[in-house]
Design goal:
Elements lengths: L8 E2 L5 H9 L7 E9 L1 H12 L6 H15 L5 E4 L2 E4 L3 E7 L10 E7 L5 H15 L8 H11 L3 H16 L5 H6 L6 E5 L20 E15 L2 E15 L5 H16 L17
Parallel strand pairs: 5-7, 7-8
Antiparallel strand pairs: 1-4, 2-9, 3-4, 5-6, 8-9
Helix pairs in contact: 3-4, 3-8
């Protein structure tokens, strides 16, 4: 309202229904759609072994994030967000996730936020992820900037003022005057959030999107399990990975989401598709 946002440009060329939906569903929690699926792990396991033979480390988390980054690069409406009744397009692709140095009960997690252009290959994304995760775990010295911001809010501000400060930040974000430094550090101001529940040995969940920030897509990856499937007229067992997605429905319609998920399934079935870099990501409308 008061100025341009540091994390997106306003889109004005929208259908009337799209323009009115953010006024009907005012909060992200009002507009959550939930999608559930499973993916056959065999193509992933085969691909991981092939890359391992080449001396390249690839894991499930690498494949999932690389697939989503490529998907958003080709389907730019997924990289939109709603704020104060308006729809914005992000200039780049951001991902947020939490990592733990160990799986002990007393292991303190740290939140990582990374930025991608959308043209990167799966190998480039895997290397970037591994380097950042290593810096935040085994090579970590003190807190990162995001953790420092959260600790400042929770420990340096008197308890009775925290609610006031958070409400002020919400108001500033709503009116496009949130300081760029806070937007850059906030893990809730992101294209998508990922939680890897596979590493914890539990099933996927439907994780809520946050009313604070701009997160429009929340992906949850669950543990693998063997399920019966019909193949060539026979019932066989396959190893599948559970997958849950919660999305903000206001910034694009159901048809666009459905076609996007079909494309994502293609990437999941054949991760080799992610090895070729994009010359240029698809830009959103003006």
């Amino acid at each position: 309202m008061f100025g341009k946002r540091p994390d997106g440009r306003r889109i004005k060329n929208l259908e009337p229904m799209q323009m009115i939906m953010p006024y009907i569903m005012k909060e992200r929690s009002d507009s959550m759609n939930m999608y559930e699926d499973t993916f056959n792990c065999e193509p992933w396991d085969t691909y991981i072994k092939e890359k391992e033979a080449e001396g390249i480390k690839i894991g499930y988390m690498h494949i999932l994030i690389a697939a989503i980054v490529r998907l958003i690069a080709l389907r730019p409406q997924l990289n939109r967000f709603c704020m104060n009744g308006r729809i914005y397009a992000r200039p780049k692709i951001w991902v947020s996730f939490v990592v733990h140095p160990t799986l002990r009960n007393d292991s303190e997690g740290t939140t990582i936020k990374m930025c991608f252009e959308g043209t990167e290959t799966i190998t480039e994304i895997a290397q970037m992820l591994d380097k950042r995760i290593a810096n935040e775990t085994v090579n970590r010295k003190g807190e990162n900037d995001t953790d420092k911001l959260m600790r400042t809010l929770m420990h340096r501000i008197p308890g009775f003022l925290i609610k006031f400060v958070v409400n002020v930040l919400l108001w500033m974000d709503k009116h496009n005057i949130m300081p760029k430094m806070i937007v850059d550090l906030s893990p809730m101001h992101t294209s998508f959030f990922v939680t890897n529940l596979k590493s914890l040995g539990i099933n996927h969940i439907f994780h809520h999107t946050y009313n604070f920030g701009t997160t429009g897509l929340f992906f949850a990856m669950g543990k693998e399990k063997r399920i019966p499937v019909v193949k060539n007229g026979e019932i066989i067992e396959e190893k599948h990975m559970g997958f849950g997605l919660v999305s903000d429905e206001r910034f694009c319609d159901g048809l666009y989401f459905a076609n996007s998920l079909r494309l994502m399934r293609k990437f999941m079935k054949d991760p080799k598709m992610l090895e070729q870099p994009l010359d240029k990501k698809v830009e959103d409308v003006e």
